[in-house]
Design a protein that fits this description.
Number of strands: 8
Largest sheet: 4 strands, mixed
Helix content: 55-70%
Order of helices and strands: EHEEHHHEHHEEHHEHEH
Strand content: 15-25%
Number of domains: 2
Strand order of the largest sheet: 2-3-1-4
């Protein structure tokens, strides 16, 4: 007796058909009689009827293989479409370029969390296998909407996180632009400032002669700081903006400037920053 499963889809019909043909061909090589028929329906929906008969060896795994094909396509194709639809409809107030940036943030999150992706894949596979055990037809779009709500909700969460990242990034860029403006309207107080990184995030500032920068420049914003309030990275950036040097040279010394701080300095003082590969200042602050 033949087993048949009818699969309806309005999206990626050709890819679904190709993958189903591949699976059915594998079963045919094991002695099964297989058939795949395509039937267009209304509203852009297409049904693909997969039938198998002729051997008891492959019939028990037939539905599992169909479930596997659909699962792979949901993860590799529908997920992207769902994410784009969520961003387009749920965050309609952003313009197209902003939505594109949010989408990229969301994709990075999904691709980075491989463990979560595999967990989703296994969960979807189990739900499909369970469903096909007692049903011989399925419409993929409807199955996702009504049977995979938990999965879809997780994509909403990813989109929310991506929006938060986008807003934080936009706020950061606006802040950088403001700092650049402050730097550009000031006359440099010194031609060159050497930033030497020491241990525990502490830094020292020297002029072009290798002499310590006059602390009078920094007095105003140092007055209100107490030891437990000091963030040396923020303090370094504030000090550089206050002094507004013509050029900044970063010396590794015995410390390591965080990548984020270096990125901020490079953006605020665009074209004015260089790194030292090793010199007397670095050596004298190497302990």
């Amino acid at each position: 007796m033949a087993q048949c499963i009818s699969i309806g889809t309005a999206y990626r019909k050709d890819l679904l058909k190709d993958n189903l043909c591949r699976e059915l061909w594998a079963l045919k090589n094991k002695g099964a009689a297989v058939r795949l028929e395509e039937s267009p329906a209304g509203g852009g929906l297409t049904f693909l009827a997969c039938c198998i008969s002729g051997t008891g060896q492959v019939e028990p795994v037939f539905k599992q293989q169909i479930a596997g094909v659909i699962t792979n396509l949901i993860i590799s194709e529908w997920e992207d479409k769902l994410l784009r639809d969520i961003i387009r409809t749920h965050y309609y107030y952003f313009d197209d370029d902003e939505k594109c940036t949010i989408y990229k943030h969301a994709q990075q999150k999904l691709n980075f969390n491989v463990q979560k992706k595999e967990k989703n894949k296994l969960w979807i596979l189990n739900r499909l296998t369970e469903y096909l055990t007692s049903n011989s037809d399925i419409v993929i779009d409807g199955f996702i909407r009504f049977r995979l709500k938990e999965y879809v909700n997780s994509l909403y969460d990813v989109a929310d996180e991506a929006v938060d990242d986008f807003l934080s990034e936009r706020e950061y860029n606006e802040f950088i632009q403001l700092l650049r403006y402050f730097v550009e309207i000031q006359e440099p107080r010194v031609d060159l400032i050497n930033v030497v990184l020491c241990c525990d995030g502490v830094f020292k500032l020297y002029d072009e002669k290798g002499e310590v920068i006059n602390s009078d420049y920094l007095h105003d914003f140092m007055m209100d700081l107490t030891d437990n309030e000091i963030n040396y990275e923020d303090l370094l950036i504030s000090a550089l903006i206050t002094i507004a040097p013509g050029h900044i040279k970063i010396h590794p010394g015995s410390g390591k400037i965080p990548a984020g701080t270096m990125d901020t300095i490079s953006k605020v003082f665009a074209g004015r920053v260089s790194r030292c590969e090793g010199c007397a200042l670095c050596s004298s602050n190497n302990n």
